[in-house]
Design a protein that fits this description.
alpha/beta; seven-stranded mixed beta sheet; globular
């Protein structure tokens, strides 16, 4: 297996990318890792399964996505997607510009035949310890009912094969659980998904229930999904910050915090996005993982773990087979 990584992408590149790749290369000796960047000096020489590919250009976070991938054809992101198309890599990971990664995937790797719109699908931690796959969270702000129906199918396959969820429950993000609730989009999507026997559809899901694990796959348009994602990240950060303030406020709360430290550390770990890898771009014709922009080495390591499962479980082929029916 060969996994390529964008050494230029992310807030802490290239140091965090290299750190994560070194951890991964030491852990999975049977996998070849290709760092794509503009400085070969970042690559440790001691590892036999670590390679380097030169890229003279770099796509910046504030670059306009489509223009950037068309003009900067020798950027690390474009080269990574081209390597997938050419069969030179089995998966590609980037923590860079999300829109540019989607554009590069579409333009240079290609889309699975039959998929109208690929989706960005991060994993949300839930209170019951299960992992929730949410798609789409921003790849396509505007969507049609057919797109949400396709998200449900692709999400089900990924949840089963990569997250290990047997017969994944699929929910549709809505303002109420009743069947007739929502916009015209969600009503039409509800009807389409409910008619498919291959999808275990559990109906509408309200945002307030998401972290309690009512489903394993949550389907929504990119606009609503992005708001849900940003709100969840903000609330989690605020709660953990406020809790820390209270624990440190007096000597007896500090003592209580010391007694509860193992439980608090476990809770923080479960809520940490770095523990859950990255977000797959489902619908692209080869495995692409979008790592969080502020990923550190640990997050990149888990993104690699996710990419390996993506490849080894033949998720792209399974999606292709489903859409060919």
């Amino acid at each position: 297996m060969r996994i390529a990584l964008d050494a230029n992408g992310g807030d802490h590149a290239p140091a965090a990318i290299v750190d994560g790749v070194v951890q991964a290369a030491e852990h999975w000796g049977d996998t070849i890792f290709i760092l794509i960047g503009h400085d070969e000096k970042i690559v440790p020489k001691k590892l036999h399964n670590l390679e380097f590919r030169y890229a003279s250009e770099q796509i910046e976070p504030d670059d306009e996505p489509v223009k950037a991938v068309r003009r900067k054809k020798d950027s690390s992101m474009v080269i990574g997607c081209q390597m997938l198309k050419a069969g030179e890599a089995d998966a590609f990971i980037s923590a860079g510009n999300t829109g540019a990664l989607m554009a590069a995937g579409l333009l240079y790797t290609g889309r699975i035949k039959g998929v109208s719109r690929p989706a960005l699908a991060p994993i949300f931690p839930t209170i019951d310890g299960r992992e929730l796959l949410v798609l789409d969270v921003g790849a396509n702000p505007d969507a049609k009912a057919e797109h949400l129906f396709q998200y449900a199918g692709m999400g089900s396959i990924y949840a089963e094969k990569v997250l290990g969820c047997q017969q994944p429950r699929v929910g549709l993000l809505n303002i109420g659980t009743e069947e007739g609730k929502g916009s015209q989009l969600t009503k039409e999507a509800h009807e389409l998904i409910s008619q498919c026997n291959e999808i275990h559809f559990v109906g509408n899901t309200e945002a307030r229930e998401v972290l309690h694990g009512p489903c394993d796959v949550l389907v929504c348009d990119g606009f609503s999904g992005n708001i849900l994602l940003k709100n969840a990240e903000g609330v989690a950060k605020a709660i953990l910050g406020r809790l820390k303030q209270e624990i440190l406020s007096t000597w007896y709360t500090r003592f209580a915090g010391w007694l509860l430290r193992s439980k608090l550390q476990q809770f923080a770990k479960e809520m940490d996005y770095q523990e859950h890898g990255g977000a797959p771009l489902l619908g692209i014709a080869a495995p692409i993982i979008k790592a969080h922009g502020s990923s550190d080495g640990k997050a990149i390591f888990h993104a690699v773990r996710q990419a390996r499962l993506f490849v080894s479980r033949n998720v792209v082929s399974l999606i292709q087979d489903q859409f060919a029916k």
